[in-house]
Structures are given as C-alpha cells and as structure tokens.
Amino acid sequence: MIQVNNLHKSFGKEEILKGINTQFYQGKTNLIIGQSGAGKTVFLKCLLGLFEPTEGTIEYNGQAYSSLDAEKQRDLRQKMGMVFQGGALFDSMTIAENVMFPLRMFTKQKKSEMMDRVDEVLQRVNLENVNHKFPSEISGGMQKRVSIARAIVNKPEYLFCDEPNSGLDPKTAILIDNLIQEITKENDITTVINTHDMNSVLEIGENIVYLKNGNLAWNGSKDEIYKSEDESLTNFVYSSELFKKVRKAQLKGL
Amino acid sequence: MKYLHDIGEYFIMLKKVFGRMTKTSVLRGLIFKEIDDLIISSLGIVIFISFFIGGVVTIQTALNLNNPLIPKSLIAFTARQSIILEFSPTFISIIMAGKVGSNITSSIGTMRVMEQIDALEVMGINSANYLIFPKIIAMLFYPFVIAISMFVGIAGAYAAGVLGGFVAGEQFLNGLQNDFISFHLVYAFIKTFFFAIILATIPAYHGYYMKGGALEVGKASTTAFVWTSVVLILANYLLTQLLLS
Hints:
Chain A: Keywords: ATP-binding, Nucleotide-binding, Transport. The structure holds 2 protein chains of 2 kinds. By secondary structure, chain A is an alpha/beta fold. In chain A, about 40% of the residues lie in helices and about 25% in strands. Chain A is built from 10 helices and 10 strands. In chain A, a hairpin with a 2-residue loop joins strand 4 and strand 5. By secondary structure, chain B is mainly α. Chain B has one domain. Chain B has 10 helices and no strands. In chain B, helix 4 packs antiparallel against helix 7, helix 4 packs antiparallel against helix 10 and helix 6 packs antiparallel against helix 9. Chains A and B meet through helix 2 and helix 3 of A and helix 5 of B.
C-alpha cells in the first residue's frame, strides 16, 4: 500500500500539488485522473521518487521514502516497475534485451535463467516471436506490452503506469487495461495508473483519485463515481454524449 | 547568471557521473560500444582530412618560400610543426566536436525526450554514470586518433611536397627531423587529453539536461557544438600559455 500524507510540490513560486492525502491499495488498480494541468504527472513523479516533495511524506508499506538513506531508496526503487506513456524502450536493444535489462542490472542470474524469465513475461503479455526485433519494428500496442513486460520482469511490488493506453485503438486500449488489472491481481501488487481515458476509469477503476488544480477533489471507486455530486468530476468523466447516456443508465440502475 | 547556473549544473553532472557505478559487466559492454561509435568510426574522416590538410600546408608553405637562401627542408619543418602543434590536436578536435559531439548530444537528448533516462532513474540506475561514464572512458582513446592524424598529416605533406615537385625526398626527411623537440609531442598529447574530456562532457551535458521535443534535440546539438568549440579554443590558449611560454 502507498500512503500519501499532506503532499505539496512547488516549482519556484508555483504550487502544483496542494496538500494531497490519499491511499493506493495493494492488489487494486488505483487510478489518478484529472484535467490537463491538474498535477497528475507531477503526482506520479513524486510517487516514483523522481521529484522530491516540497512538504509531506509518501509511505510505501509504512516506510516513508524521504526517511530512507540513499541505499534503501535505491532498494525501494528496484521494487517499482514503470510503464511510460511512450513505452520508453531502449532503441538500441532488442525486445528481449529491453525486457532483460532490469534482470541484468540487479540480479546475478545466469543468462539462460534470465532468458527463461523474459520468455515467461513476454508470453504473459501475449507477445511471441518478437525477442529479436527492435522496438521500431513493432506496433505501438506491442511496445506498450513490452513496456509492461519490462516493468514486471523483476517482480515489482509497485507498478506505475503513465497513460498506458494513449495513442492506442479502443480495442487494444481495453486489452492493455485488462492486462494491467490481471497482472495486479495475479501478483498482488499496488498499481497506480495515471490516465485520461474514461473507458479505463469505468473499466478498471477500483480506487480513483480525482485531482483538480493540485487538490484531491474526489476519491472512490468506479461503482461510486456516477453517484458523485461533484459537478466538475461528473462533467469531466461524463463529458461526451455517450458517457452522459451511460451515467443516466447507471443512475437508473441499468 | 544563466551561464553560472549552467557551469554549476555541469559540475553537478560530473559529480553524478563519477557517483554510484553501474555493474561492471554491463559497463564493459557499453565502453566497447562507445569506443566503436566515437573512436573507430571517426578514423575515416580524420585520416581523410589529415592527409589533405597536411598536403595543403606543404603546398602553401612551398609557394611562399621564394627566397633561394631559405632551404627547402624548411617546408617539411613547417608542415611538421603546424601538424603536431596545432592542426592535429586542435583543428581535428573542432571537427570532432561536430562529429562526436553532436552524436553524444543527440543520442542522450533523444533518450531524454523518449523518457528513457527517466526509465533508468525509476529502475534505481545512476543514469549519468550509465550514459556518460562509458563515453568519457572511450574518449580516453582519443590521443590514438590524434597520433594517427599526425602520422597521416605528415604523410600527406610528404606526398604533396615530394610528388608535387616542391621539395626532394631527402630534403623533406631532413627538414622533418630538424630541431625536433620531443616536448612538443608531450604538449600536443596533454592538450589532446583535456580536449577528449571536453569533447565527451560538454555535449553530454547539453543532451542530459535537454528540455523539450525533437526540435530541441537539433538545437541542443548545435548549441553543444558551439560551446564545445569555444571551450576547446579557450583551453587551447590556456594550455599553450601554461606549457609552452
């Protein structure tokens, strides 16, 4: 579990995050949503330890990141997996080398053991016969799946995803969402997803954190969201005509 | 004020580069790859330029020596001094600022744009060490490039001088050996060592702290070339003043 206590983050005089208190639960898909400029990416980068909070603490299973020495912070980082918006695969490496990278860096496994694990995770994300290809030779959806494989290869306790289905067609986007949710359940990890995609919210949003102007404006699940009376939230989530109809149906209990 | 900030940031980056080291087995492979990318792949252009510039220096010297009292061997002497003292260490380094420097800036800058540096950091890897340290070690082989440049430059001078009929072969060889001061070679290689560090680190700084998208990668490469050249020229002046005055 990740516990966020009174998190503030400023750049110069501009305050981006204004005292966020929330939790991200183990074994659940936790979503951060909000309009552009709401502070989602800054929040995610604080969770990842890429940005140091101006004030407040972030606890990972009860351990505050800021209270750890550099060595322990590194150990904690090795328990994190990250799926970047663009995949962030290393262009000069093959798919197998990309997925193997965390194992090469942090384990003393033999190459054959690492290859077995690579094959296992690539199979898990439904990718076969791509080991020797380069990232530029596969589609965007496949790159996302490779990125997920790389994030989970070292059996992380925390999985972070930044817009995991941006730029994907709706069918592939749902596949990626479901894959992330399945992996979360199978491995009982704490997954935090930063998303704009309302399909994802209504599909896999077990714990949703809605940010507005750097504040936590709403927190709940996909089953609670349609009952919310927060106008900015409902306007944001049910912005399209289709989603407005979905909400009406949800309110009618259909 | 911005320059002070940049200089400070450059030294912070250097501290980070020599901070927590990447696993040796991984680093070894990266160093060999960088030696191939930065050193071996530069040899062709260095040999080509050195040979012809050596020839041009010889022709220009020969055409300007009209006085019959001045021995023809001075042509070789002048070519040797020009090539060893300035052309090979400095002129080739400025060319390398364009070739190697832009390679370093664009490769690291692209990794920044594509969030690959963030990916390394999230994994708990010292990205500065992983990306820049192998380039610095590879550039320590740069003096070998300059040694080859000197040899080929003098060969080009010989070819232009002797085959062009400006000086006899024996006279050229005599001039080449006249008043040879071995410290001049030491001076050239000391300069080359400092230039290698400049060539590896300044472009790396411009790539590592790059902000923006693909367009900015191009701008960063240009800025890196300009600043690397400026620092090379200043370092050249300072080192010459310190070592030769």
